[in-house]
Amino acid sequence: MPDRAPEPVDRQLPTDEARDLISLVRDIAQREIAPKAAEEEDAGRFPRELFTLLSESGLLGLPYDAEYGGGDQPYEVYLQVLEELAAARLTVGLGVSVHTLASYALAAFGAKEQQAEYLPAMLGGGLLGAYCLSEPSSGSDAASLRTRAVRDGDDWVITGTKAWITHGGIADFYTVMARTGEEGSRGISAFLVPGDAEGLGAAVPEKKMGMKGSPTAQVHLDGVRVPDARRIGEEGQGFAIALSALDGGRLGIAACAIGLAQAALDEALGYATERRQFGKPIADFQGLRFMLADMATQIEAGRALYLAAARLRDAGRPFAKQAAMAKLHCTDTAMRVTTDAVQVLGGYGYTADFPAERLMREAKVLQIVEGTNQIQRMVIARHLAGPETR
């Protein structure tokens, strides 16, 4: 392992409070997350105790209102926290992003009574959330989902299967999109389903290329009964809620991707300055110097892109196009940078003794989750040229 300690990212933060927050996150990352990351990922162990610590430290509700236990932080600060966490271990950074995504529907569209009843525990009570939109037969075409909720008096009875659910089987609450009306996007509603609801269960977690410590599983809802008081928003509003959540979620994935890429660059740079060949460090060879320069430039560009989108969001301006651009660019950057990091390390990069190969395997999923990068291109093109002709 390289002995050279990486330089912390030089961040432009809006307040002293934000600077203190980043210092806290870096301390937790260095003491509690990074030292165990490789071992626990190899063992496929989810660090639930870390999420308890993050909750106690106020890091699971950063972009939400302090009135309900949130941190009242702008998205530009929250995303940089995610980046720091993902650089230490993607399972943790992505887990916080997914929890934030799962909390969004209630925080943004819930009634005041619902928010007062449920949000404090979700944001600061040690709970962990999951977001349930995708299904075995509806991923990119999410509006064709088949999970159905049928009204029964003051309750809804939900039946169906959700797929590719991060925290599936271990979450304390699930934000579930289910069909309550007509086919298509207008017949979908959103529900807050407790993790211990009767009839809710999860399949064996998927065996994945990377992020083995983060459980991804199908979630089965077999006649799960949920009171109407747990329906979020209006009937038929669920798909609009889901899309709104994904705009912010894509920024979370973008920030995690840059954190992962930064970790790979730090590893490559540390190795290249210490590894000697032909009597000098390999970082002295122009081929590698240019590779490192390109990696750093791509990372800085990605960071600037996701922060620009976040500042639009914080200002209450439209940001969906920029969110798609950030998710596309940052996750493609993570794949390129981690691949180049393996190349810089040569044979060592291909072994599990160094983190480069793990980072490369983990980067791939970021091009897929919360809308594949092909879907991001479709979203961007629609903003530029309008909807496709039928």
> Which spans of ≥5 residues are poorly predicted at pLDDT below 50?
none
Helix/strand order:
HHHHHEEEEEEEEHEEHHHH
- Gross geometry: globular
**What's the β-strand tally?**
10
Largest sheet: 4 strands, mixed
End-to-end gap = 56 Å
| Average predicted confidence as pLDDT | 96
Approximately how much beta-strand content do the residues carry?
Answer: 5-15%
- Major sheet strand order: 1-4-5-8
Percent of residues in helices comes to: 40-55%
Number of helices: 10
Helical/strand content category: alpha+beta
Cα-based radius of gyration, to the nearest Å:
21 Å
Could you explain the architecture of this structure?
This protein has 390 residues and is an alpha+beta fold. Helix content is 51%, strand content 14%. It is built from 10 helices and 10 strands. The chain has helices at residues 16-43, 48-56, 75-88, 90-109, 112-124, 238-274, 286-314, 320-345, 356-366, 373-385, and strands at 129-132, 148-152, 155-166, 173-179, 188-194, 200-202, 216-227, 231-232, 276-277, 280-281. The strands form 3 sheets. A 4-stranded mixed sheet has the order 1-4-5-8. It has a 4-stranded antiparallel sheet with strand order 2-3-7-6, with no helix packed on it. Helix 6 packs antiparallel against helix 9 (356-366).
List the helices and strands and how they pair.
Elements: H1 16-43, H2 48-56, H3 75-88, H4 90-109, H5 112-124, E1 129-132, E2 148-152, E3 155-166, E4 173-179, E5 188-194, E6 200-202, E7 216-227, E8 231-232, H6 238-274, E9 276-277, E10 280-281, H7 286-314, H8 320-345, H9 356-366, H10 373-385
